[in-house]
Design a protein that fits this description.
Blueprint: E1 7-15, E2 22-23, E3 32-33, E4 35-43, E5 48-55, H1 64-76, H2 84-93, H3 101-118, H4 122-125, E6 132-138, H5 145-158, E7 162-166, H6 171-185, E8 191-195, H7 202-212, E9 217-221, H8 229-238, E10 242-244, H9 253-261, H10 277-291, H11 303-315, E11 322-325, E12 346-348, H12 361-367, E13 368-373
Parallel strand pairs: 6-7, 6-11, 7-8, 8-9, 9-10
Antiparallel strand pairs: 1-4, 1-13, 2-3, 4-5, 6-12
Amino acid sequence: MSGDLSVSRIRAWAVTPETSMRVRYHGRMDREPVNIELVRVDLANGCYGAASFLSGYRGRGGGSVVAKAEAAAGAVLGSDAARRSATTSALLDAAGEGPWEGISLLDCALWDAYGRSVGLPVWRLLGGYRERIPAYASTEAFLTIEEYLDEAKRLVAMGYPAIKFHMNTDPDFDLELVRVITHAYGEGKIRFMTDQEQLNSFDEAVRLGEAMSRGPFDWLEAPMPDKELDAYVELNSAVAVDVLPAGNTLVRLEQWREGLARKAWSRLRFDAGNSGGITGAMQGMGLARAYGVPVEIQSYGYQPAQIANLHVMLGMMGCTWFEHPVPAQPFDFPVTIPVTIDGQGCVSAPSATGFGFEIDWSMVETEAFARFDSDA
């Protein structure tokens, strides 16, 4: 199917699924529920595309992404999905610093709809670099060392070759956890990463990075606020373990270029869901390749967000790991056949066109607490 590729309708929903779990991303916070906010774009030819992002955390109140999508919808209605990147670029030029969840989800949905229209999966449209990628389990934060150890044992038994801990962020606690993990897994067969949620001081980050460099750790993520580039430059030169930004604060190409040029980070990190969609992700992948650094795309979220980012990882060269939130089942909503790891700890390309997922729209409609419809 190809036909008329013009956008005929745009809808958006915010949902707190009945299956959602309360999540703790660092030890200083209480468990909080996380919402899924979905955007759907319908084309005149009958095809649709969809994308999602999280809300309810990091200052994104419930319904905030729906409101952003509604604000940008007028510029996308009637546009040609074949010229989706031009449409997105025009919106981003007028949008300010970002993050840009609404514009990004509209772009992702346009890529999905276009892929369905021309009969190709998005990862093939992006170049078809590979068909599978290793996955790491991305945990929540815990309050005891024993909980972290128990979770590691469980995830290793499930077949994950790598684990990223959202850390407690108490400096002494985290150093002890690194010591214990190094003692238990020091042979390096299982790889580990840490996420500090931008809550460390510079001195704390140096101590943690030095300890991690002596163990089975691949990277130290978001130790300080992303915008503290001077501190990141100094940290990245002071520790042997790789240093990454959070990936959800600095989302513009110019900001990524400055960080890489100054060697603030060892690897680039971003999420298609807030940095310009697939269009923005393509630019980020190309920039990282030019600077000779890997990309660790953020894919923590509900299944539509995971899968959109997966297509970038598979379509283009440069990514090392797929981020898989655990426990996974609460984040499967509302996709009917979720992405899972295989016996080798990898995730594979969806075989269907576009993003390759199908959504239970009746569940979305039933459970939504905020919505937008361009036809209303």
